[in-house]
Amino acid sequence: MQNLVKIKRALISVSDKAGLEDLVTVLTEHNIEIISSGGTRKYLENLNFKVTPIEQVTGNPEAFSGRMKTLSFQVSSALLYRRDNEQDLVEAKELSIEAIDLVVCNLYPFEKVAKEQADWDVLIENIDIGGPTMVRAAAKNYKDVCVATNKIQYANIISELKEHNGETSIALRQKMALAAFKHLASYDSAIVHQMEKHWDSEVTIPVLSMEKAKELRYGENPHQKSWLCPDPFESGIANAEPIQGKALSYNNLLDADAAWRCNGDLSSVAPDNLSAVVTIIKHSNPCGAACSATVLEALELAWAGDPISSFGSIICFNQEVTTECATWLKDKFIEVIIAPSFSADALEVFAKKKNLRLLPLATHNGEYSSPMVRSISGGWLVQQEDSKADEQLQSVTKNNFPESKHELASFGVMACKHLRSNAIGVFHEFDNGLALIGAGMGNPNRLISLEQAVNKARENGFDDLSNDVLISDAFFPFSDNIDIVHQAGIKYVLQPGGSIQDNQVIEACNDVEMSMAFTGRRHFRH
After folding, report:
1. Is 283 a residue of the active site?
2. Where exactly does CATH 3.40.50.1380 map onto the chain?
3. Shortest CA distance to 6 belongs to which of 139, 145, 127?
4. Catalytic residue (choose from 8, 17, 30, 140)
5. CATH number, span 389-518
6. Is 140 assigned a catalytic role?
7. How far apart are CA 59 and CA 78, in angstroms?
């Protein structure tokens, strides 16, 4: 059953007037009365449409610099009373309430003004009050009223009016009502987000808008649906626009975000003479990370950290991708490359790889304004990002952790904290840079991660690890961890400390003349 409702009166109040002329033309052709206010009314009258001023409906003038226009008993009643309820019909007649059957309203452009970083008073003035009230009332009474909140919906209304001679179906009204409530939720979330930022809230709620969500091909696996919900107030992977390649998948986006965050962290600690940073991510874990004097050298060092895993990976640069880098990568399979920019010649080389996605995005600055949000059954977990470098490096063994290893240690800690726990990384200082040469991650047993990291370094051709630094994301619970480290020939270890077995672990290091330092900060990443 279509449950058609005749539209006799329409209330129109919009900030974005695109497409409005076509809609009002069709409304007028069906003898639908147009009610409007303020700028919308003037716009329509300039197009020679007949418009009933909102004051004639409310009985009140616009006031307080336009803050009061549509808010009124008369307008809300015209939208809310039930056309199939006898008592409502009697009251509407007694109160001289005439039905409004269509509301067309897009709200004050709060998000746009916020993005422009307008003064706070200007932002406050762009919080719409009357619009959401009308939209909410119309959406609640969808059985009798149709509501449009976006210009892309006008075509559906026009189509129905033409097909049903000025009437709308229940299917359309339901669809529009749901879209209206999504729009209101997104709008209110944006306001809360800005107020939290302005009033220094500890946790700024992210704007999760399914209204603006982009459906992806599938989720982690082909049988799972997925969407991308960009935060309109944040820069980052979700808002980056690819300049080439096929659409990004759910997994691509996760890995691209991991690569970008890791690269930003490493850029913040890279020595000035080794400022070019390249990170390579596979399944959200760094399989390559390096800094050097040039981007090509950094790329070569990062790739050498795990050439096999780098196949089908995502790479992030903190400097422009040069022709030399593009040429070096041309015979390698890469899913995505992220960089602040790409040289014209590099773009020409990459153009031959049609599926390769290129994302231009400024290097992450290491500052996080949005929290990390993950879903669990029945709710969500929200936390601050694990940001910034460790501030202390305390030598705890008889053999002091040498000053000469501090740059490598700082670089390694930032890389290691992006590995999934339990995480172990082995880091090497080359003549031309610093790099991850072996990693073990995602194991329930830290001993397994230790063995994996050492074995990977050996696979990469590093038989002598005596000058390298091994870093753990969390404390070593027992001294048997040190046994494996010692057997690998490693002499320098960095860990947070904090275990009740710390003294035993330190003693085990002293027994084999190993240098160990504590950072005092754990970096679990589940």
Report:
1. yes
2. 6-198
3. 145
4. 140
5. 3.40.140.20
6. yes
7. 14
